[in-house]
What does this fold into?
Amino acid sequence: MRMTGAGYTVVVPTSGRNSLQALLSSLEHGAGPAPAEVIVAGPVPDLPGLSVPVRVVAGGRNAGWRAANTEWVVFLDDDVRLPADWRERLATDLTGLPSRVAASYGHLVVPPPTGGRRPADDERRCAERAAGWHLSDFACRRDVLAALGGFDERTSRVGSDFVLRLRRAGLDWERGSRLSLQPSRERGFFDSVTEQRAHAGDAVLRRRYGRTWRDLTDAGPSPMGRHFLTTAALAAASLAGRRRGVAAAAWLALTTDFALRRILPGPRTPREIARMVVTSALVPPAAVLSRLRGEIAALREKPSAPKAILFDRDDTIIVNEPYLADPKLVRPMPGAEQVLRRLREAGVAIGVVSNQSGVARGLITEEQLTEVNARVEELLGPFDTWQVCVHGEADGCACRKPKPGLVRQAAKALGVRPRDCVVIGDIGADVGAAAAAGAAGILVPTEHTREEEIRSAPRVARDLTEAVGLAMGERAW
It folds into this structure.
């Protein structure tokens, strides 16, 4: 695949900072394919004249990518700077990526302080964030953005939420070879305190994706344990009692240690020392209050149930009999009848998406296939749609899983979007088809499932009942 100028659109979410002009100038000058368009999302100052079309839209990242018409959308923060080879490296990063790779992000470099000065606390934290996953220089396939509904801008952890949804859909992301610079900007005295608002998003992500969400996004260890301990000591010290002095001493020791760990690596100027002393006392309670607000928001957030659940047939809802041609041999999988009945009672559409290459191989006839599927419905009840691929691997059809055809056809027949469906199956092709169509996938391994399929699956359930429970959400189910 050759990368062309029409292959990507640059979206720059901005709050109107003057740094935007420098970014656009650095984007224009360089080798490699130019973007088809630059979309600036947000209020802007006067823009420099560019050789590529520039459009301004109201809103943020979501408004920007929805206005794009190219295969790839590249998001750039308005304060990054691009080296002369950025466009060239971007083309290299995006060319030939397999379909399972939905996104690519660049290396973000934070220049060290000038004059040999040690970096201040906020400069060190900026460099730490730049070393991991980020949205500052992030490219994503537009059809994936559309399938996932874009970014959830309600949460303070926008980037982490998005990559977790990518992982849940069975998609990957890769770090590219391109570099971008993010110069440190002067921070306000209390910026480290106001940044604690982000901890509200931690509770929401834990509720949505489980306790391992930080490991899945390389977010690093959480400081909340220590912040909770420091805040508890402060609360105990404010209460009357014989142990008030002990609590006060514990709070002072914890706060002093926190301040020293922020002061000693830095420039140790009077202003920096004063800022670290004051904010080290304020950060823990600010973080705890933010986290508590997030916990309340997470409790109020209702899990969104899918509008349709699509099942593979063999070894998922019925026991696998190779090239099954005799309806008398149809046997339901354990729990299949019960979960299907409950889904019908809950008003959730259900369907079957099944590869049946035995027809193409001449091992069964289409009439026998129809009789077997009719027997499945006799034993398990009616399905709202059947989508079956009767082609062989060499036929080059668009429907054989892991291609998305069956899932898309089922969604269309049910009058829903693929993103509102969950596909449940026993092999990698099932969850692969879900991901390719923009649906969620859940793997229920059997003795025929390969280990690498289990490792790469976005979600794995022990049995069919657990898989449907995961699809519906604990409360909804």
Remarks:
- The two ends are 44 Å apart (CA to CA).
- Residues 308-472 form a domain with the Rossmann fold fold (CATH 3.40.50.1000).
